[in-house]
Amino acid sequence: MKPTIVTLDLEGVFTPEIWIEFAHKTDIPALQRTTRDEPNYDKLMHYRIDILRQHNLRLTDIQAVIASMSVLPGARDFLDWLRSRTQVIILSDTFYEFAMPLMVQLGRPTLLCHTLEIDAQGMISGYRLRLPDSKRAAVLALQQLNLHVIAVGDSYNDTSMLAAADHGIFFRPPANVISNFPQFPVVRRYADLQNQIEALLPRTA
Question: Is the model's pTM score more than 0.85?
Fold first, then answer.
């Protein structure tokens, strides 16, 4: 029997959406767009970078908002349970420059995400992906290591990860994502997600 590993998205699964929180703090509704609204990640990021430049907002402005954020209620308890049962990796399209304060709150689980490019004025000028479609690539690599993969996500940018995994589960996705990908089971509470995953784990995990 193969060992099991669970890969999970970060924002929307364990934490609020960082860009939405920042949009609320800065009163810039245009920054509320996420991968739930725009499946093309490159298009979305350039859209965000353009808005930040228009408003003269720097990386430090975003980091100040992130420092005030908390993980979702119940997220740490669920993650602690999951890590007691099996191996866990968080696969996210966020950036290391954003995520670290939130990872501390979650007990520093393993995170694979992306990196920002910052200019001399502290403005976000671009970003560097680990790999194109990196969540799917990570799942395929784990399977090549003879691991059984359960994947959990909430948005369009998680669907290739869920499709590649041995089992894919949606956690609190919006209606438009559900309608486009009806093949994945949907759960909305950590208790239900725990039950779904528990049923898929080998008895000896």
Answer: yes
> Across the strands, what pairs with 88?
6
Q: How confident is the model at residue 201 (pLDDT cuts 50, 70, 90)?
A: very high
Given the residues 9, 17, 97, 154, select the one marked as catalytic.
9
Q: What is the pLDDT of residue 186?
A: 98
17 as an active site residue: the answer is no
Domain segments of the chain: what residues?
Answer: 4-15+72-200, 19-67
The burial of 88, by beta-carbon neighbours within 10 Å (0-12 exposed, 13-18 middle, 19 or more buried), is given as: middle
In sequence order, the 6+-apart residues with CB closer than 8 A to the CB of 131 are: 137
- Domain 4-15+72-200 coded CATH 1.10.1740.10: no
50 in catalytic set = no
